[in-house]
Backbone:
């Protein structure tokens, strides 16, 4: 896959990447999201990736806690 231009990453390595948008050819397409007033729409940006990374971090921390280890 290809990271969006607005992604924050190292040129040496990437430990985790979450989609803030997807590419359709050379065009950035937003991800489906809920909007105010009970609507749905398409949004792109790091704010769309943050919940995915936060969820992954919570799962990793939970696994360590279950094993009695500290993160």
Residues:
């Amino acid at each position: 896959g290809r990271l969006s231009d607005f992604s924050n990453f190292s040129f040496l390595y990437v430990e985790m990447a979450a989609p803030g948008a997807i590419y359709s050819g050379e065009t950035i397409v937003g991800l489906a999201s809920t909007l105010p007033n009970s609507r749905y729409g398409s949004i792109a940006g790091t704010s769309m990736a943050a919940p995915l990374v936060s969820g992954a971090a919570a799962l990793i921390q939970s696994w360590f806690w279950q094993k009695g280890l500290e993160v």
The radius of gyration is 15 Å.
